[in-house]
Design goal:
By secondary structure, the chain is mostly helical. It is built from 54 helices and no strands. Helix 7 packs across helix 9, helix 16 packs parallel to helix 19 and helix 22 packs across helix 23. The longest helix is centred in the first third of the chain and has 30 residues.
Length: about 1050
């Protein structure tokens, strides 16, 4: 750099230029400051002399990178620390906020990384108080910013710091400094209470919140979830938390501050309301604390302090109320003075929130959670003090249902895309708490639900007969009914709660269920049977499916039948459904109706099929289904005439699930005659396609028939879980129908809509799950199956490689390639074919398949392989199988290809996915073990493969040292979850050539601080203690143990 002015101009460009090329050039030129440790003194020079904030920012961010990524000498780090504190003190008030933030981050990072290296680093809190004691607001702000950043830095892991070391520093910081910082935040809040400058108030509040949100016990719980549980505050904090002014200051700030400060004050209160119960001296102290919380929240509710008009405040206040029952017993709440006023105010607040549902939808969840937890505690309540829940809960139940109805009424004028009835999973979450309120006084709420449902159902029944012009009215009725059905489903989900008579609850369950079952009859009759294309009708049908799912779990099946006599006797009186077989018939009838009538809605079809699958795969319900005529009909007639959704292209993915269910039901009976008769509709499609002449094979009709057939077959193949059932399918397909698959691939190779289902069927067909592919010892079927695999992969691969790259290269090329690799991996690893036979008899099936697979993998750039997740997995699984069972094929490749493949294994090792890095480690271990056994330990190598490997390594002598270095870097400097897998190739590589290991050891030591060399050298010596020159499993296990100890010793700072 010729001058400081030039550097300042470059920094200006780096941070401000609109031109990306100009920015990249500036970044490249200035990179040396953050990479090369010799530039640290220049960074100091820039801080002392530069005039523009961008140059200061460069110096600060470069130093941060240096400190994080390099092990700097202790004295240098201390010098930087002291320099920063002086710099912030003297020049801080005049700096730009972003420069101050960057310098403070640097100070906190250097403090954290050096926490155990010198006592000076631990004096940072005292240094901050010097800033706070100055008269100027600017110094005060810098002091608070340092403490804010310090707590944040200590609480979050850093990429350059092992997690164990991070926890040690965090725990020591928690014990030594955090309490003092929390006290500083409280005294600052008191001092600043009347200060008009909200900036300082904001910093002090933010500091208090960061202290209370600290990860005290290293659990790293997700804050956004309801479950951040109790806050594990250390015992030393007890006096200050039992001091009433601590809680009061946050209530005060909520009262005097605007949002977002008021929201932060509430967040602090949520944390304080969650403090562990055992912190308090005794029950009296805990009750006093609870009393203070109740009084504070009561005042907010009474005055309706303006703050609740702000959405964030409102949401946080609901969270605060939700905390009351998570941390305190109902009996404790009831015994508090003023409980009756408090519970009345909370009930009024809840009802008001339900009325303004549009505004409060996500926050109401916390309030319902509070009420559901209150009512579930009632049976365990001792003593005479009234809980007053009987008075309020029914009102809240009715308020909730009314609010849902109002939302329906309003919803049709708004955008229908954001309808809560569309997101069934989220809806069930929101309804999780509500059933407990209903079952609390089930007689009242059950009768209330029936009372409001009957007139709507009556109206809906009438509308089935009378044509109306206005569809909106019917849509509103259907939406209301959908809500009621969802609510009834949620009530049935929790079945019974303790403390109430089971019989009376069952009778009410029957009453509500009967209304839904009546509704089903109406919904599929008269004019309503023409409404399957309407969104509101689809929402209603999805609600009914949810109802069936919950009803089945509670009341269908052997156990449920015997324990649910009251329910079935009442259903028998109401609808004549006296046992669960009759009820199953109703459910299956609805499933059949949906499959017959819905062609437009994939969601309803998928949901219907998932219910059907639940029934078919249940041990008891599966057997019961086979007794039903509807099921027998579906299994025998699964054709487009009877089930139009099979014709609909947009539902073609659902066919696999449908045929999986059909297969499951067919195989439950274990009869070959039944299997053949059930496969008749598919046989017709085979016959028709096989008789189509080649000239007409590229028509749309053939295309859709092929796609459907492959999806259907894949479903059937997924259902074969035993040797017998797989044998039925294999004999049905082979040899008669396999040529059609090859013909399909050959004619449609450029159309992924056809090739993908065909290849995916093959991938399922060759998968040896549950040992289903076990043929007799005299059967050639394993070899014949692999020949078919080879033909299909060669046909597909040779054609796809000749195609030019399309715009959507993943869909048109890579997807087919990864499915092909999966087929081959599964076939090679399936253990049902002796691959030595092919070479012995001069059969090229194996060689051709491996050749074309290799060509396909080499046609994809490594960057693309690593960019597409499914392709990555298939590629590395394939390589693992190859290196494990067919290593000779790999070793016989030319050196460039061999190096490319092994190089890709090294990339896989560095990836974030542990399963992939384990596969790569296993493949590398196979090569290294082969080298060790045949070249290092062998006489003169005689096998052609061994000679080839020796030649590859001679041409690229750096291959093994590079991989060993990568493996050591992962084990030593990263948090790897698969250390066992990585230890295997490390030993093989060390034993190949111990000189490589010695060189690497010297390299690693040179990269560490000089004062650590002796300790680390001892660690390396211990690594090879009691390890012999062999790769037997006992020696490998000993090395793995040593490596674990070595890693832990090495990483201790």
């Amino acid at each position: 750099m010729e001058s400081l002015a030039q550097l300042e101009a470059l920094c200006e460009r780096l941070y401000n230029s609109q031109d990306s090329a100009e920015r990249a050039h500036a970044e490249n030129t200035l990179k040396c400051f953050s990479v090369n440790t010799e530039y640290i003194s220049q960074c100091q020079y820039i801080l002392d002399n530069a005039l523009t904030p961008y140059a200061l920012m460069l110096a600060s961010s470069s130093l941060l990178k240096q400190v994080t990524e390099h092990s700097l000498a202790l004295q240098l780090r201390l010098d930087i620390r002291n320099y920063l504190i002086n710099y912030l003190f003297t020049r801080g008030p005049k700096l730009q906020p972003f420069v101050i933030a960057s310098l403070i981050q640097l100070l906190c990072r250097i403090t954290k990384f050096g926490w155990f290296d010198d006592d000076k680093f631990r004096e940072v809190v005292n240094d901050s108080t010097n800033f706070l004691s100055q008269a100027t607001p600017d110094h005060f702000a810098i002091g608070l910013k340092i403490l804010n950043q310090l707590v944040l830095e200590m609480n979050q892991p850093n990429p350059g710091l092992p997690s164990t070391h991070h926890r040690r520093v965090a725990c020591n910081f928690r014990d030594q400094s955090l309490f003092q910082i929390f006290q500083i935040s409280l005294t600052s809040l008191l001092q600043l209470k009347n200060d008009v400058s909200s900036r300082l108030q904001e910093l002090a509040l933010s500091l208090a919140l960061k202290c209370l949100s600290f990860d005290f016990v290293g659990t790293s719980i997700d804050e956004s979830s309801e479950e951040f549980g109790t806050v594990q505050i250390p015992s030393a904090w007890k006096p200050i938390l039992e001091e009433p002014s601590t809680l009061q200051i946050f209530f005060d700030y909520y009262g005097i501050a605007e949002s977002p400060l008021s929201k932060e004050a509430l967040e602090c209160l949520v944390r304080l309301a969650s403090v562990r119960r055992s912190l308090f001296t005794n029950d009296a102290a805990r009750s006093k604390f609870l009393g203070h919380l109740m009084t504070g929240t009561k005042e907010i509710l009474q005055t309706g302090q303006g703050g609740l008009g702000d959405h964030d405040n409102y949401h946080e206040f609901c969270r605060l109320l939700g905390r009351f029952k998570l941390n305190y017993q109902l009996s404790e709440l009831i015994n508090m003075e003023g409980y009756s006023d408090w519970i009345r105010l909370v009930a009024e607040f809840t009802l008001k929130s339900l009325q303004s549902w549009q505004w409060a939808s996500s926050s109401v969840y916390y309030l319902l959670g509070l009420w559901s937890r209150l009512v579930t505690s009632v049976p365990y309540l001792k003593g005479d003090a009234p809980s007053l829940l009987d008075e309020f809960v029914p009102k809240i139940t009715e308020g909730f249902i009314t609010s849902r109805f109002n939302s329906v009424q309003a919803g049709f004028s708004d955008d229908p895309s954001d309808n809560p009835l569309d997101n069934v999973e989220l809806l069930q979450d929101q309804l999780d708490c509500f059933p407990y309120l209903c079952r609390f006084q089930y007689e009242n709420s059950g009768l209330y639900i029936i009372k409001i449902m009957e007139p709507i159902l009556q109206l809906y029944t009438e509308r089935a007969q009378v044509q109306t012009r206005d569809n909106t009215e019917i849509s509103v009725i259907e939406a209301k009914l959908a809500w009621i059905v969802h609510i009834i489903a949620a009530i049935l989900k929790i079945k019974q709660i303790t403390g109430c008579s089971v019989e009376s609850q069952e009778v009410l369950d029957a009453e509500l269920s009967a209304r839904v079952l009546q509704l089903i009859k109406v919904a599929d009759s008269g004019l309503h049977s023409q409404r399957y294309g309407e969104l509101s009708k689809q929402r209603l049908d999805r609600a009914i499916l949810i109802f069936f799912q919950h009803f089945r779990k509670s009341y269908v099946g052997d156990q449920a039948m015997h324990s649910s006599k009251q329910l079935y006797s009442r259903l028998s009186e109401l609808l004549g459904l006296s046992d669960h077989l009759l009820l199953l018939n109703v459910i299956v009838g609805k499933i059949a109706t949906n499959l017959k009538c819905y062609t437009m809605s994939g969601e309803v079809i998928d949901h219907t099929l998932s219910l059907f699958l639940e029934l078919a795969s249940g041990y008891m319900t599966g057997k019961l289904l086979l007794k039903l005529d509807t099921v027998k009909f579906i299994v025998a007639n699964h054709t487009r005439e009877h089930l139009p959704f099979l014709e609909e292209y947009r539902c073609s993915r659902s066919r696999t699930t449908f045929y999986y269910i059909i297969g499951w039901l067919i195989f439950l009976e274990d009869s070959s005659v039944k299997f053949k008769s059930s496969m008749e509709p598919l046989l017709q499609i085979f016959v028709s396609l096989e008789s189509t002449p080649d000239a007409m094979f590229r028509s749309d009709a053939v295309k859709h028939a092929l796609i459907g057939l492959m999806r259907d077959l894949r479903g059937i193949a997924m259902a074969t879980n035993s040797r017998r059932t797989y044998g039925l399918l294999f004999d049905w397909l082979y040899p008669a129908h396999m040529p059609l698959l090859l013909k399909g691939i050959s004619h449609w190779y450029d159309t992924p809509e056809v090739t993908t289902p065909t290849l995916k069927f093959m991938a399922e067909f060759v998968l040896n799950k549950a040992q289903r592919l076990t043929f007799d010892s005299s059967s050639p079927n394993g070899i014949l199956l692999f020949r078919e695999v080879s033909k299909i992969i060669v046909a597909y691969g040779s054609r796809i490689l000749s195609l030019p790259n399309a715009a959507d290269i993943y869909k048109y090329k890579y997807k087919g390639i990864w499915v092909s690799l999966t087929i081959l991996s599964r076939a090679l690893a399936g253990n049902y074919c002796n691959f030595g036979v092919f070479e012995l008899y001069g059969d090229r099936a194996l060689a051709d398949a491996l050749d074309i697979a290799l060509k396909m993998t080499l046609s994809v750039p490594l960057a693309d392989i690593l960019a597409y997740r499914k392709l990555t997995r298939a590629y590395f699984s394939f390589l693992e199988v190859l290196f494990n069972s067919h290593i000779v094929f790999i070793l016989n490749l030319d050196t460039n290809t061999f190096m490319h493949i092994v190089g890709s294994l090294e990339s896989g090792l560095k990836g974030l996915d542990t399963s992939i890095s384990s596969q790569c480690a296993s493949a590398i271990d196979n090569v290294a073990a082969f080298y060790f056994n045949n070249i290092t330990m062998g006489e003169a190598p005689s096998l052609p493969a061994a000679l080839n490997l020796a030649r590859h390594i001679q041409e690229c002598p750096n291959l093994f040292p590079e991989i060993l270095k990568t493996l050591f870097e992962i084990v030593l400097f990263e948090d790897c979850g698969n250390q066992w897998s990585l230890s295997r190739p490390i030993l093989s590589l060390i034993l190949i050539n111990e000189q490589i290991f010695s060189d690497l050891k010297a390299q690693i030591l040179a990269s560490q601080a000089v004062d650590q060399h002796q300790r680390l050298s001892l660690c390396f010596d211990k690594l090879m203690a009691d390890v012999t020159r062999s790769l037997d499993s006992k020696n490998r296990d000993k090395f793995t143990q040593n490596l674990t100890v070595f890693r832990n010793d090495f990483r201790v700072k």
